[in-house]
Amino acid sequence: SEMCIIERETLMTCHAWQQQAMLTRLGAIVQRRIQIQQQQSDKTALKVTRLGGMFSRKPHYELPAEIQGTTLTLLLQQPLKLHDMEVIHITFEREALANWLEKGGEIRGKLNGIGFAQLLNMDVDTSQHLVVRDVSLQGSRLALPGSASQENMPAEIRQQLEALDDEWHQQHNRFSEQQKCLFIPVEWLGRIEASLQDVGAQIK
């Protein structure tokens, strides 16, 4: 049946060559790296620029010019429980955050970078730092991650990524050898190859 075909395809493009398991491991490594970055002293609370006069009724702000890219991941200087989840970082759409700073209203972000963007209680404090608050109004400043360059990568993270990269090469080689014996449509082989390449690209 069609359902069986869809299930088999999902099995092959997500699980048969450990694609999903490798992505789960990658997610855990990324979380750990962010935790380490949080503990490093070079992290700085993100400071926004105030626009308009000192006495304008409603202050407007803008992001620093050096912040580029369509998304922005900010670390909580103190983890908070938001929407029943222990949150250590939030991913924002840069345009949405810039819009909120300028006009106010609602702001949403992905908690720990996963799932749907959730509604957040945020404000700008008197020293022009972004602050996110939990239900009890306890706040945490938001900070830019430290430099993400290879030189600054902790040894434990590098080792975990190298082990995952080795695993990916093993799975890819296994698939390359097995595909001659797999009695499945050619386009499925293409999709499995694409799913493996996608995992490889994310590990890189």
UniProtKB/TrEMBL annotation:
Residues 45-146 form the ATPase RavA LARA domain. It comes from the Bacteria. Signal peptide: none annotated. Residues 154-204 form the ATPase RavA C-terminal domain. It holds the Pfam family ATPase_RavA_C. This is ATPase RavA. It comes from Klebsiella variicola.
